[in-house]
User: Which sequence fits this backbone?
């Protein structure tokens, strides 16, 4: 298992690590700050610095079976090597802001309209989320945009917890997606709590308060089916 440091500290930009395994896909470390992607959030990018002074680009990171695989040039590292992992902080922080913006959107839509999420995706400072709406209009998205920016201005604190499965699933409405994305048999569940607005299971990285997000603009909406409507957002300073 890889110790996934981003799960408890999304602001950690680098860490020391040891190569635990080398495979055709890349290297597995004993610990990492690199988020491997998931739930619509892209993986982190950055570099690994070796003890010999080399800088290895890390452009692809993926998770499999509780371990994180970092793609680096073949033959550049061996089991037991010490490295310094350093993420591209601007890329990470933009994704943190965007992911939190989507949670604010999700929280407001669930609170005010009772609509579940049917899909989502993001890039730095832009994203989209699909909801179970029968109808969508410019008037409705205008109402939603005003409401989500009230939540930004409220500067609500955001709390991360890792809970035992039974405790987590005792929380009402923990899963806000139409289909649960949590693997069967998972023993611990990571939750993101935007205090007073949105509490749900989530594996991505987030800012510490809604005030860090910036202004959220709804830049478009479209129908993706009879009861599936898409809302697109952009985040600005």
Assistant:
């Amino acid at each position: 298992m890889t110790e996934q440091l981003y799960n408890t500290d999304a602001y950690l930009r680098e860490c020391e690590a040891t190569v635990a395994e080398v495979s055709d896909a890349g290297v597995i470390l004993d610990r990492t700050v690199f988020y491997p992607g998931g739930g619509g959030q892209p993986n982190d990018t950055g570099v690994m610095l070796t003890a010999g002074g080399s800088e290895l680009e890390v452009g692809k990171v993926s998770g499999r079976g509780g371990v994180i695989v970092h793609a680096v040039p073949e033959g550049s590292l061996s089991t037991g090597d010490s490295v310094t992992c350093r993420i591209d902080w601007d890329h990470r922080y933009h994704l943190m802001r965007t992911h939190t913006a989507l949670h604010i959107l999700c929280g407001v839509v669930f609170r005010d309209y009772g609509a579940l999420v049917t899909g989502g995706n993001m890039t730095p400072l832009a994203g989209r989320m699909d909801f179970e709406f029968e109808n969508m209009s410019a008037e409705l998205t205008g109402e939603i945009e005003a409401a989500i920016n009230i939540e930004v201005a409220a500067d609500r604190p955001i709390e991360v917890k890792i809970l035992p499965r039974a405790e987590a699933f005792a929380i009402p409405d923990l899963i806000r997606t139409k289909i649960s994305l949590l693997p069967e048999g998972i023993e611990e569940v990571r939750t993101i709590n935007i205090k007073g607005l949105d509490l749900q299971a989530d594996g991505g990285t987030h800012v510490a308060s809604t005030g860090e997000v910036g202004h959220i603009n709804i830049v478009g909406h479209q129908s993706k089916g009879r009861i599936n409507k898409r809302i697109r957002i952009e985040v600005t300073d």
